[in-house]
Amino acid sequence: MRGYTADKDDYLKRLRRIEGQVRGLQRMIENDEYCIDVLTQISAATKALQAVSLGLLDEHLRHCVAQAVAEGGEGAEAKVREASAAIARLVRS
Protein backbone atom coordinates (compact mmCIF):
# COMPACT_ATOMS: atom_id res chain seq x y z
CA MET A 1 0.00 0.00 0.00
CA ARG A 2 1.33 3.45 -0.94
CA GLY A 3 1.30 6.39 1.46
CA TYR A 4 -1.24 8.26 -0.65
CA THR A 5 -3.64 5.33 -1.03
CA ALA A 6 -6.08 6.68 1.57
CA ASP A 7 -6.30 9.97 -0.36
CA LYS A 8 -6.11 8.45 -3.84
CA ASP A 9 -9.60 9.59 -4.87
CA ASP A 10 -8.81 13.17 -3.82
CA TYR A 11 -5.59 13.15 -5.82
CA LEU A 12 -7.38 11.75 -8.85
CA LYS A 13 -10.07 14.47 -8.61
CA ARG A 14 -7.40 17.16 -8.41
CA LEU A 15 -5.52 15.71 -11.38
CA ARG A 16 -8.71 15.54 -13.44
CA ARG A 17 -9.36 19.18 -12.60
CA ILE A 18 -5.82 20.04 -13.71
CA GLU A 19 -6.36 18.05 -16.90
CA GLY A 20 -9.41 20.23 -17.56
CA GLN A 21 -7.34 23.34 -16.95
CA VAL A 22 -4.77 22.17 -19.49
CA ARG A 23 -7.50 21.47 -22.04
CA GLY A 24 -8.78 24.98 -21.36
CA LEU A 25 -5.30 26.32 -22.08
CA GLN A 26 -5.30 24.52 -25.41
CA ARG A 27 -8.63 26.14 -26.27
CA MET A 28 -7.31 29.54 -25.24
CA ILE A 29 -4.38 29.18 -27.63
CA GLU A 30 -6.66 27.87 -30.41
CA ASN A 31 -8.91 30.91 -29.89
CA ASP A 32 -5.99 33.37 -29.86
CA GLU A 33 -6.78 34.57 -26.33
CA TYR A 34 -4.81 37.43 -24.81
CA CYS A 35 -1.28 36.35 -23.79
CA ILE A 36 -1.56 37.52 -20.19
CA ASP A 37 -4.81 35.59 -19.72
CA VAL A 38 -3.14 32.42 -21.00
CA LEU A 39 -0.14 33.00 -18.73
CA THR A 40 -2.46 33.52 -15.76
CA GLN A 41 -4.12 30.18 -16.42
CA ILE A 42 -0.74 28.47 -16.87
CA SER A 43 0.27 29.83 -13.48
CA ALA A 44 -2.91 28.44 -11.92
CA ALA A 45 -2.31 24.99 -13.45
CA THR A 46 1.31 25.06 -12.30
CA LYS A 47 0.27 25.94 -8.74
CA ALA A 48 -2.28 23.12 -8.78
CA LEU A 49 0.38 20.61 -9.88
CA GLN A 50 2.73 21.92 -7.21
CA ALA A 51 0.03 21.38 -4.58
CA VAL A 52 -0.40 17.77 -5.72
CA SER A 53 3.38 17.30 -5.66
CA LEU A 54 3.69 18.68 -2.15
CA GLY A 55 0.85 16.49 -0.93
CA LEU A 56 2.44 13.38 -2.40
CA LEU A 57 5.82 14.34 -0.98
CA ASP A 58 4.29 14.81 2.47
CA GLU A 59 2.61 11.41 2.24
CA HIS A 60 5.89 9.84 1.10
CA LEU A 61 7.80 11.32 4.02
CA ARG A 62 5.14 10.38 6.58
CA HIS A 63 4.72 6.82 5.38
CA CYS A 64 7.44 5.42 3.16
CA VAL A 65 10.42 7.27 4.61
CA ALA A 66 9.22 7.07 8.21
CA GLN A 67 8.66 3.31 7.88
CA ALA A 68 12.10 2.80 6.32
CA VAL A 69 13.77 4.86 9.06
CA ALA A 70 11.95 2.85 11.74
CA GLU A 71 13.28 -0.35 10.13
CA GLY A 72 16.78 1.14 9.83
CA GLY A 73 19.66 -0.03 7.71
CA GLU A 74 20.56 0.76 4.13
CA GLY A 75 16.90 0.89 3.14
CA ALA A 76 16.41 3.91 5.38
CA GLU A 77 19.38 5.72 3.89
CA ALA A 78 18.16 4.94 0.39
CA LYS A 79 14.67 6.30 1.12
CA VAL A 80 16.09 9.51 2.58
CA ARG A 81 18.36 9.97 -0.48
CA GLU A 82 15.41 9.28 -2.76
CA ALA A 83 13.25 11.85 -0.93
CA SER A 84 16.05 14.41 -1.01
CA ALA A 85 16.44 13.93 -4.76
CA ALA A 86 12.68 14.34 -5.26
CA ILE A 87 12.73 17.55 -3.22
CA ALA A 88 15.66 18.85 -5.30
CA ARG A 89 13.72 18.15 -8.51
CA LEU A 90 10.67 19.98 -7.18
CA VAL A 91 12.74 22.97 -6.12
CA ARG A 92 14.40 23.19 -9.55
CA SER A 93 11.08 23.06 -11.39
UniProtKB/TrEMBL annotation:
Localization: Cytoplasm
GO terms of molecular function: DNA-binding transcription repressor activity; metal ion binding; transcription cis-regulatory region binding
Annotated GO CC locations: cytoplasm; protein-DNA complex
Family as reported in the entry's similarity comment: Belongs to the CsoR family.
Protein name (database record): Copper-sensing transcriptional repressor RicR
Pfam families linked to this entry: Trns_repr_metal
Keywords: Copper, Cytoplasm, DNA-binding, Metal-binding, Repressor, Transcription, Transcription regulation
Top-level lineage group: Bacteria
